[in-house]
Amino acid sequence: MRVIAGAAKGKRLKSPISDTTRPIMDRVKTALFDILAFRIADTTVLDLFAGVGSVGIEALSRGAKHAVFIEMNLPIIRILRENLANTGFTAQAAIHHSDAFAYIPRAAAARTKFDIIYIAPPQYKGMAQRALRAVVEHHLASPDGLLIVQIHPRERSEFIQQYGNYSLTDERTYGSTSLLFYSETAQVSAAVNQKQEDSNP
User: Fold this and answer.
1) Model pTM greater than 0.70?
2) Domain spans of the chain?
3) HEC string of 5-53?
4) Phi, psi values for residue 115, rounded to 5°
5) How confident is the model at residue 190 (pLDDT cuts 50, 70, 90)?
6) If one looks up domain 26-199 in CATH, what number appears?
């Protein structure tokens, strides 16, 4: 596993031999950040089930200004700290040793907002949908924020088109990994209206 592009391009990331994390394959990470290419700069990113930090570190490498990593496994956090130090992003990162579902209401109480929230729980037990619902209900995203859920394709049937004000706007599948993208409905409507206006002389 490595940093694909940006300031830390080519840096190797340590990863445990364990089933306690759900690592994102390099080809999937490449595809994800190709999609995010024009909106990653100067953003604040929440890597909600961070593992060793691959997604948040990639975002920092490509120009995100700050990333928050939530991880409850202490041995994994030690590896995450090493990865941040190795890539030079320690100062731009905050690590919370916490269960994700405990962190979400605390962040909401502190009125913390994120531009991009990445949700990739390690187990296939309905956690991804539960986390997505919690993020929406606690209003953790900024007004034009993007929620991204990483799942196995067999989990896809658990997800619906709309959660609160957030609609499924895109989905991609790469082998055994699917990515679902949710944006606020008002933002989606505005984008559609602008596209229609642009197409009319």
Assistant:
1) yes
2) 26-199
3) CCCCCCCECCCCCCCCCCCCCHHHHHHHHHHCCCCCCCCEEEECCCCCC
4) -80, -35
5) very low
6) 3.40.50.150
